[in-house]
Amino acid sequence: MTKLVHRLGWPGTLALGIVVLFVLVAILAPWIAPYPAQGAGAPNVIAKLRPPSADYWLGTDHLGRDILSRIIYGTRVSLTNGVLIVAFSLLIGLPVGLAAGYFGGWVDEALMRGTDVFLAFPALLLAVLMAAALGPGFLNSIIAVAVTWWPWYARLARAEVLVLRGQPYVEAARLAGVSHPRIILRHILPATGRPLTVQAALDVGPALLTAAALSFLGLGVLPPTADWGQMVDAGRKFFPARWWYSAMPGLTIFIVALAFSVLGDALRERKGGAARASH
Question: How confident is the model at residue 170 (pLDDT cuts 50, 70, 90)?
Fold first, then answer.
């Protein structure tokens, strides 16, 4: 624990603890939710719109479902959204950035001009347009956001490769006749891992927020699947009289997004400290 605090600092350690806690909540949702059936979407109309109480710690929604149980089940969707958006963005952007930075010339020019086309549009607006074109759904919302995010990873990977391709060990491998794919996979890709990992950790929070925004607009997962953004949208119709309906999932989104942001900052600071120590 002391080593972890030394590496990440207290804010980073606390943020990591919150992230781990929510991951465990997502995994154990059916066992820890007070009302698992309601968390999965079963209505309970005799208890609709009840305020927080001993029976329903965070109140109930318009169908009488326990909001705490819905938030616990929604953790699965929301965290998966954030992680998969970042993963899909990396799968697209990383190969593009590696190829552009390593080969240079017309390959770099063509790939970066294609990247600039996506960067020319506001990310959230493009995600909304893509989601509207694909239609609501879990996978569609992930694809819609990933399509708007991969250019940033392509740019970051390219910048790292431009520095690495001139390193002596890369030049030596090239002169030894090692193939381009082997050089990229064995010598360049591992060295780009740390900055991309830090950026990915920073991006999970914003990705989660963007996915929640799509759900808020009705372009995310479909009911009765629990989703935090969808819950905020449903609860706003009853706000402020039934404030708990939208406030509780909204607060959850804020806490998780902030935790990922602080964790990413701590990892970036650790990377910067390691780089300074090496000089």
Answer: confident
Q: Quick one: 2-271 is in which CATH superfamily? A: MetI-like (1.10.3720.10)
Helix (H) or strand (E) segment spanning residue 7:
helix 2-27
Q: How far apart are CA 181 and CA 57, in angstroms?
A: 56
- Contact status, residue 149 vs residue 85, Cβ threshold 8 Å: yes
Packing angle, helices 193-216 and 243-278, rounded to 10: 170
Write down the pLDDT at residue 271: 58
Compute the chain's Rg from CA coordinates. 22
Tokens 């968390």 locate to 39
Q: Give the torsion sign (CA, 26, 32, 37, 43).
A: negative
The helix-helix angle for 193-216 and 138-164 (nearest 10°) equals 160
Report yes or no on whether pTM surpasses 0.70.
yes
CA distances from 130 to 60, 82, 121 (A): 33, 17, 12
**CA-based nearest residue to 256, from 94, 17, 7:** 17
- Which among 211, 216, 208 has a CA at the least distance from the CA of 258? 208
Residue closest to 208 by CA, chosen among 246, 251, 147, 256? 256
Question: Over the stretch 193-212, which tens digit does the pLDDT of each residue have?
Answer: 778 888 888 888 889 999 99
- pLDDT for 183 beyond 60: yes
Domain ranges of the chain: 2-271
